[in-house]
Amino acid sequence: MPKGGRKGGHKGRARQYTSPEEIDAQLQAEKQKAREEEEQEEGGEGATGDPKKDKKSLDSDESDEDDEDYQQKRKGVEGLIDIENPNRVIQTTKKVTQLDLDGPKELSRREREEIEKQKAKERYMKMHLAGKTEQAKADLARLAIIRKQREEAARKKEEERKAKDEAAMAGKRLQSLSLNK
């Protein structure tokens, strides 16, 4: 008999998934709880509550999402301790109306280096084609040597062909003279 006393393990059980509606309801409940806690804190300072704040809390739940100073619930002792860390990046959400799409975009270091690398390569190719780089000068010198070698080889071939033609002509003359005799 298996250790658990049951047949089959936990892997064969049916999975239960939370529906999106349930998740939304849980988020709404958490927001409502956070709002009530804020009201209690504010209400403790003054006996009379501000009617504008009460009216705001009764408005739709979307109004809380639009607030810029909305802070997420802090975990553990994080809410008790104020940390002044200059390296800490505080994430701020921007509205679509606040985005500046027409302004100049800041390139990352990698993008800047990639652009610089491409420009340097283009400059080098222009100088290379103009024959101003050391590699281009070496290539041109090598080409000049090869041209000279090819010209000499062509000259030798031409001389050999002429020599063969002359020998063939001399051989034909001899044959024609021997046939005439």
TrEMBL record:
Q: Which GO terms describe its cellular component?
A: cytosol; plasma membrane
Basic and acidic residues: which segments have biased composition?
50-59, 102-117, 151-167
Name recorded for this polypeptide: PDGFA associated protein 1
**Pfam families from the entry?**
PP28 (PF10252)
Q: Region entry Disordered: which residue ranges?
A: 1-117, 151-181
Q: Which domain of life is it from?
A: Eukaryota
Basic residues: compositionally biased ranges = 1-14
Q: InterPro entries this protein is in?
A: Casein_kinase_sb_PP28 (IPR019380), HAP28 (IPR039876)
Q: Tell me the first and last residues of the signal peptide.
A: none
Q: Which PANTHER family match?
A: 28 KDA HEAT- AND ACID-STABLE PHOSPHOPROTEIN PDGF-ASSOCIATED PROTEIN
Q: Which residues form the Casein kinase substrate phosphoprotein PP28 domain?
A: 85-162
Which residue stretches does the UniProt record annotate as biased composition, category Acidic residues? Answer: 60-69
